[in-house]
Amino acid sequence: MKNHINQLKELITPYREEIIHHKVYSQIKTIDDLKVFMKYHVFAVWDFMSLLKSLQNNLTCTSVPWFPTGSADTRFLINEIVVGEESDVDMDGKRMSHFELYIAAMKQSGADERTIESFTKSLKENKDLDLAFNVANVPAEVIKFVQQTFNVINTNHAHIQAAVFTFGREDLIPGMFHSIIQDIHMNFPDCISVFKYYLERHIEVDGDHHSHLALEMTERLCGNDEKKWSEATEFTIESLQSRISLWDGVYNEIMSTRN
């Protein structure tokens, strides 16, 4: 299985490198630039949780009556990740999800959270993703990104979901955030303490414990099945491409405000 992992990593390396070194990071120079970044990125935080919960639904029993489902080792892996993402602690030790923590960071910085709040409100009420996009006037790059995530979810194949989670999302986060965290607190010391905490928390949790759990989970689910590894690679590449497009959208909006 190690050969499969190494082959997948090799194939996705160009896309990962493009994301980690994307030109958008160098353009986040003011608090207004950061607000644009957060307006887009919050959707990735939200649909990450949807991807995570779809994995939990596939790998554990989340209905009543309960029956043991799948491997106990895999159940342990996904449930431990869910606990950390869905009920972590904020700077004061208060329990909240990483999504709720991100919303708190947006409020502190003055970022416009109306788009994500309108989107989630509509989706909760109507269960219609396309309607929610329209109601909230969501940017095209965000729509493409979220749709790709839900394409993964709707495969209902745990090995595809796990691979995208591991290599297209979870395993990507530390490198991506390391690229922007170095100077951000120095530039915006009074407005982004919650955002800084969020970034550091992700680097600490996702860059160490969660990424190892997710990698093990993917290995277990794909096993030695060549077809599963091929599908895992295909969908992971699509996920990385949609992230590049999302960052392009952030970059273009930031640059448009300077013209």
- DSSP strand (E) fraction? under 5%
State the share of residues found in helices, binned by percent: over 70%
User: Low-confidence parts, pLDDT < 50 over ≥5 residues?
Assistant: none
Rg, nearest Å:
18 Å
Q: What distance separates the N and C termini? A: 51 Å
Give structural notes:
This protein has 259 residues and is mostly helical. It has eleven helices and two strands. The chain has a two-stranded antiparallel ribbon with strand order 1-2. It is globular, with a radius of gyration of 18 Å.
Short characterization:
With 259 residues, this protein is mainly α.
List the helices and strands and how they pair.
Blueprint: H1 2-20, H2 31-59, H3 72-86, E1 88-89, E2 95-96, H4 98-109, H5 114-126, H6 129-136, H7 140-155, H8 158-169, H9 173-187, H10 193-222, H11 226-256
Antiparallel strand pairs: 1-2
